[in-house]
Amino acid sequence: MRVSGQGGAMTKTKNLLTRRLCAVAVPALLAVSLTACGGGSDAPDDASKEDFCKAYQAEPEFDDALNDASPEEQAKAIKDAVTKLADDFEKVGTPKDIPDDAREGFEISLESARDLDTGDIQKAIEDKNGDFFDNLVTGDDQKKTKAFDDWASDYCG
């Protein structure tokens, strides 16, 4: 899934940071470990290519009011957008032919998206830390989320 904001009065830096936070969160988390929680996703495993790719490439829109919002309000909007995308993506699920490691990465990403903390997002906005999401998933889980993103990018071309 990809994220884009709408134009407005937000400064270029703030706008780029907000986009970076969302853009990295969504595919990486869709962006802390489902495996660590011992659970699994109830997401279907028979999604059509069309439905899967539509969900993977979805772009939430932010209200123009977000451009002038406080970091706290922006963090909440990002959290809500990422959670909604994860919920929508889980309803669609994955195609039958997804490799096992990519499916696991999909599940890790869904759980990670739901585990995001608005306080951490707000701090990243205030600190202009565009790399905030890069370390949320680590080790084998990071390899699996990368496998998912690589597979989905190729699959949806």
Entry keywords:
157 residues; mainly alpha; 61% helix; disordered N terminus
- Secondary-structure element string: HHHHHHH
Shape verdict = globular
| Low-pLDDT residue spans | 1-17, 24-39
- Provide the residue-averaged pLDDT: 75
Brief account:
This protein has 157 residues and is mainly alpha-helical.
Give structural notes.
The protein has 157 residues and is mainly alpha-helical. The chain has one domain (12-156). Helix content is 61%, strand content 0%. It contains seven helices and no strands. Helix 3 (49-56) runs antiparallel to helix 4. The longest helix is centred in the middle third of the chain and has 22 residues, at 71-92. The protein is globular, with a radius of gyration of 15 Å. Residues 1-17 and 24-39 have low confidence and may be disordered.
What secondary-structure arrangement, pairings included, does this model have?
Layout: H1 12-29, H2 34-37, H3 49-56, H4 71-92, H5 100-115, H6 118-126, H7 139-156
Helix pairs in contact: 1-4, 1-5, 3-4, 4-5, 4-6, 5-7
